[in-house]
Amino acid sequence: MSDTIFGKIIRGEIPAERVYEDDHCIVINDISPQAPIHRLVIPKQSIAKLCDANEDHRALLGHLMWVAAKVANDAGIGDACRFVINNGEGGGQTVFHLHVHVLGGIEMSEQTL
Ligand code: 5GP
């Protein structure tokens, strides 16, 4: 498992409320929310970034998408939300453990976020 902040959260070394958890991932609220609802879907298996994923990760990646949709639906934003994956430093990624942002609760325009 990675030694990023998310690795530490998954291992329980840093506290974070788990909005959802299963065998493959956890969901937490972002510490610095960019929208009224801002959750992070984080796989327990560490992949530094999406573009490092390989064929063996296909089922996990599908699962993360399914959980992201469930989290959005459960939060009541299933019809108005945004899913974001920043990839690499140039893509705005700051924590190098793959995660999906689930954002909503405000009007989403092209410029938002
Ligand atoms: P990235 O920029 O890598 O796509 O997103 C990393 C996200 O992790 C940021 O939105 C940041 O606010 C969030 N984050 C960083 N450290 C922590 C933490 O300790 N706890 C939580 N809940 N979120 C964090």
Description of the structure:
The chain is an alpha+beta fold. The chain has one domain: 2-Layer Sandwich (HIT family, subunit A). The chain is 20% helix and 22% strand. The chain contains 2 helices and 5 strands. A 5-stranded antiparallel sheet has the order 1-2-3-5-4, covered by helices on one side. The mean pLDDT is 95. The structure holds guanosine-5'-monophosphate (5GP). Guanosine-5'-monophosphate binds next to strand 2.
Net shape:
globular
The largest beta-sheet arranges its strands as: 1-2-3-5-4
What is the end-to-end distance? 29 Å
**Order of helical and strand elements:** HEEEHEE
CATH superfamily: HIT-like
Say how many strands there are. 5
Number of domains: 1
Task: Write the SSE topology.
Blueprint: H1 5-10, E1 18-21, E2 25-29, E3 37-43, H2 58-74, E4 81-84, E5 100-104
Antiparallel strand pairs: 1-2, 2-3, 3-5, 4-5
The structure holds guanosine-5'-monophosphate.
Residues 5, 16, 28-32, 86, 92-95 line the site of guanosine-5'-monophosphate.
Features:
113 residues; alpha+beta; HIT family, subunit A; 5-stranded antiparallel beta sheet; 2 helices; binds guanosine-5'-monophosphate
Concise synopsis of the structure shown:
With 113 residues, the chain is an alpha+beta fold. It contains two helices and five strands.
